[in-house]
TrEMBL record:
NCBIfam families per the UniProt record, alphabetical: agmatinase
CDD domains (alphabetical): Agmatinase_PAH
UniProt-listed Gene3D superfamilies: Ureohydrolase domain (3.40.800.10)
Family to which the UniProt record says this protein belongs: Belongs to the arginase family. Agmatinase subfamily.
InterPro entries: Agmatinase-rel (IPR005925), Ureohydrolase (IPR006035), Ureohydrolase_dom_sf (IPR023696), Ureohydrolase_Mn_BS (IPR020855)
Keyword terms: Hydrolase, Manganese, Metal-binding, Signal
Binding site for Mn(2+): 183, 207, 209, 211, 307, 309
UniProt GO BP: putrescine biosynthetic process from arginine, via agmatine
Name of the protein this chain belongs to: Agmatinase
Cofactors that this protein relies on: Mn(2+)
Gene Ontology terms for molecular function: agmatinase activity; metal ion binding
Keyword Disulfide bond applies: no
Range of residues in the leader sequence: 1-23
Amino acid sequence: MRKTIFSSLALVGALASVSTAHGDYEEYGQMPIVSGPSEITNLFERPILEKDTYVPSFAGISTFAHLPYRQCWEEGSADDYDIAVIGAPYDIGVTFRTGARFGPSAIREGSKRIKGYNMEVGINPFRSWASMVDCGDVPFEPFSSEHAMKQIEDYTKYLLLRPPQIGESESKPPRLITLGGDHTILLPVLRSMRAAYNKPVQVIHFDSHVDTWAPEIYNVKSQQSKYNHGNPLYHAAKEGLVANGTSMHVGIRSSLYDEDDVARDIALGFNIIKANDIFKLGVDGIVERMHEILGPAEDSLVYLSIDIDVIDPSMAPATGTPETGGFLTREMRYILRGLKDYNLVGMDVVEVAPAYDTQAQLTSFLAADLIYEVMSMMVKSGEQ
Ligand SMILES: *[C@@H]1O[C@H](CO)[C@@H](O)[C@H](O)[C@H]1NC(C)=O
């Protein structure tokens, strides 16, 4: 122990002597004097490093699935990626349990084991034509929902509306994967999608709730409180961000305020596939129904928004408004993979509130795996 301290102190002294002209060890008071140049030189004799290629999945700083971290919003940062993962730790729009601000970090932590070949989709998205980065989290000001929503809109727009990259004649937005956050974040993200694609996207909304509740229901008293996690799709449809008639909710089962909620939802342009439909239709039948609603895959422009509460709370307990009677994880992954031929331009997983998770991190693993499925399809469909 003593020896170690001695040599590191000596090293500091040696460095000082190199970087300053004085080389005066005495200015360090108790420092032992290092006698001659040969001894100093020895201190810099590094071993030859045999680089290890295997890094275990539990090691390392958490980015999504160990993707490289890129400071995407910094001036001069290269925009040359095909898929960008971002976090939006916004949770000030919830009506029940809080805590989804810790969703992005929990999902990243839950994604540590993901790194390889997706047997069902037939691709390894991490060894493909696609370059993927994790941009970290959008700055989030948690004291003003109005400003925080603007931050999400501005920062996602910045990513999507990038200048043309090498080999492109016009600007092509990267695919965007957003880690929520509560469901309010969907509205600013869809505003950016609208700006990037110049037309409304077909939203496939996996959720136990319709999320088209009118603001009046919540007895709103201010401009800010018009927006919460129960109504992003109400506003989005009204703002013309959602393709009317070819968008849908999948997995619906929560209780409603009254039957007007369904009428409002249909008038806003959505179709509903209920969680219970799985009994009659089966998973293949649900996929078929989704295809019918979407129309031809070659003309599609699909955005997937996955509220983790679409899954049964026995398998995804860590969420703000759990509803029993949901899809199982294997059903959900199967249904998702039914979208492999479509043009998936963006996705999010929202409402992961890790404080309610089990010690086994079930919900975080699930959220990460759902993203992995979609990421694999994004890469597969764009294969050259
Ligand atoms: C969607 O289309 C239907 C039928 O054309 C129309 O009645 C409805 O107003 C539209 N909804 C929105 C939000 O544009």
